[in-house]
């Protein structure tokens, strides 16, 4: 089973600008950004309810990394 997805990592570019990254607890409003990061950087895609169940069951452990504009760049 193959994937046509380009999975080259782009995360080095987000750290080159030397601006702070904030790590904080994920919220329900963050899930679309988490999915966007996952689909861009990883070969496997999970449905919304997968992330929602993690948030519901492990809210203290589900963290997101945001750039200085508030955009989610990791989780």
Automatic annotation (TrEMBL):
InterPro entries hit by this protein: Acyl_CoA_acyltransferase (IPR016181)
Gene3D superfamilies on file: 3.40.630.30
Protein name in the entry: N-acetyltransferase domain-containing protein
Organism encoding this protein: marine sediment metagenome
